[in-house]
Amino acid sequence: MALLTPQGVKKVFQFQKPKGREHLRRLLNWEEFDEVRDSRRSILLDTLYESIIFAVGKGFPWVEVAKVVKFTEELLKETKGCSITEAVTILGNKLRDYQGQFNTTHLLALCDYFHNTFIRHYKLFQYVLGQDQEVNLTVTHLEVSAPPQPLPLAEGMDRDIWHLEQQAAELNMAEMQKRTNMLLLKEALHLEQEQKLQRTFSEVPKQPSRVLKREELENLISEAIHIQIECLKELLQYEIQITFDILDLKLQKKTLNLNAPIPSPLAITGQPGQDESFKLNKANKGKKAKAKKN
Description:
Strand content: under 5%
Shape: flat
Order of helices and strands: HHHHHHHHHH
Number of strands: 0
Radius of gyration: 32 Å
Largest sheet: none
Helix content: 55-70%
């Protein structure tokens, strides 16, 4: 872990996954191992690599990305053989220990990441990483079968319409992500506001017999109001930006609907309505021909 520097994790991220995992192994000072026979070490390396991808994707600085890997490795070691209740407690304690090394937003993202990955699949992690596994490897040569026949064209979809639906789905996902980010920011700002208020009130001398002077009380109230206004200001600015972004996404969806391609007309032959019309005309001609003979 001593070699795991911000520059090192940056290189790991810049490489493709196989080369990035190999570079991470060298940074961790691990010996080379068989990926198939030593599945435990392979999965552990994957877990550490995925923690880098997560941290970079959430916008962590490179210094904090290296700390996320350290956090992950420590958590896996400390929870080995523990119950899930003990694991949750250990995770909470470690988040408090690292509180000064991450800002509130990144700390919340880190907590959410481990709850949705490590804790949710905790028994699987314990089974794979907590005990020795016997590997019985069997190699079988299989013949590659040809792909199945494609479905009839009548069951297909126009390519332009398919692309339109894909674009609409991407816009919906982007809008949902914007709204989720808004909720996460609200929670982060709320926690930050509470912490600032607690620090402000904790600075007041605690003497039971002492009464605050008017000036001290006014300063305390003014500081509390200032903290709330600053948090509210930041929240409003972000809400305005998110609102404009969502409106832009809605405009893009509206534009997609307006520019939707017109489906190709179906072929006349073989249509139910056309068959019935053809049979009716044939019957009428037969009646006219019979009437003329009579």
